[in-house]
């Protein structure tokens, strides 16, 4: 009996938590990024691109999953045995860049950046380990006017992308206020740093888990639907009540801090945060953004490095999901002040504030709202190859179309007419160009309108009628090729003219 040879071929499988992105979505995303870039440029921000990898110690320990063995990032060692990690956001690389180039940069330094980031977190529905962010940051000023500007930037960006007023809200808070509440709850001081981080992460899950779930995480812990147990902050009932007063939003028309001022009266940092929020509210009002930007004490942001104002861009509209249930997208971006991040490298405080949009989530929300950028474009016109020994003639026809600004390709396979037509259909071609020996002798080409042909085919009963009708296929002079193809494209895609 012949010995069975072991199959060592790798399986074609996508890594967990990642996804392939195809042409239509890429084009839609590119159009969306162009709109965001235009708003950011209008505010005076300049582009900056940093590498995907940074030294791991440059990224810090600010991830929501920092209790994981590899700190929630994807890491490897280089030839010098130094640890490198894929960036998990655009902010930590910016801090490294500013620290490295501080003396030659204008202050404030204003930059925007976009690209993929990676997080080694537990994947789930709509939660991927690689996704795209678009950030804007101002580095080198303590003025809360920079924070107020970030909120206005976020509002203008959402409107530029087609989200109408009334369908979004930029919510603003200040981490100094939360620090004051933490003092009142009895968890101030360095010895409680771990518990405070647990509290931050718990509050940041309010939209997903609800108040009851947050209270479980503030207490002993929470068991989720999958059976995973998350240890809580272990706060007392009084401390949980203080945090509850912080996260429950005020009703319309009520002072959002009415229940908190009593808790903050003995906290200097808490009162400082309140004063900064009052100044931001004044700036927002003066600029005419009060209908889109609101003070909301429940906003905390989950990352530890925020030191002052924090903000979140929330979509407030609902759509109906495939299961018939309402879907609300919630937060699609956020940011805040991080005055200590550059100091990790320099030892000197460099004030900074920034805002980040989650591009993939926002794109899904825009599609649901019917405001997504058009991602489909006409497929290429395909020049069929009827005579293999006349390839140069077909290449010349193809290049003529390209030179006229028409997307085109010559069929590069070796199959016959039927397979070439199937290929053109799969490519989404609006039409094909056909030239056999008879057409060449007459100085003509045939153009077959595949879109019109498909429509006509629905009303033709049999093959005989099809052959007699020869729908949407016509001959033109070879010199008129570009003009006639343009007419076909204009008939079906007038916007592409």
Automatic annotation (TrEMBL):
Gene3D superfamilies: Anticodon-binding domain (3.40.50.800), Bira Bifunctional Protein, Domain 2 (3.30.930.10). Keywords: Aminoacyl-tRNA synthetase, ATP-binding, Cytoplasm, Ligase, Nucleotide-binding, Protein biosynthesis. It catalyses: tRNA(His) + L-histidine + ATP = L-histidyl-tRNA(His) + AMP + diphosphate + H(+). It is an enzyme of class 6 (ligase). Residues 30-378 form the Aminoacyl-transfer RNA synthetases class-II family profile domain. It comes from the Bacteria. Belongs to the class-II aminoacyl-tRNA synthetase family. One of its GO terms (biological process) is histidyl-tRNA aminoacylation. This is Histidine--tRNA ligase. GO terms for molecular function: ATP binding; histidine-tRNA ligase activity. One of its GO terms (cellular component) is cytoplasm. PROSITE patterns: AA_TRNA_LIGASE_II (PS50862). NCBIfam families: hisS. Pfam families: HGTP_anticodon (PF03129), tRNA-synt_His (PF13393). InterPro entries: aa-tRNA-synth_II (IPR006195), aa-tRNA-synth_II/BPL/LPL (IPR045864), Anticodon-bd (IPR004154), Anticodon-bd_dom_sf (IPR036621), His-tRNA-ligase (IPR015807), HisRS-like_core (IPR041715), HisRS/HisZ (IPR004516), HisRS_anticodon (IPR033656). The gene is hisS. Homodimer. PANTHER family: HISTIDINE--TRNA LIGASE, HISTIDYL-TRNA SYNTHETASE. It is found in: Cytoplasm.
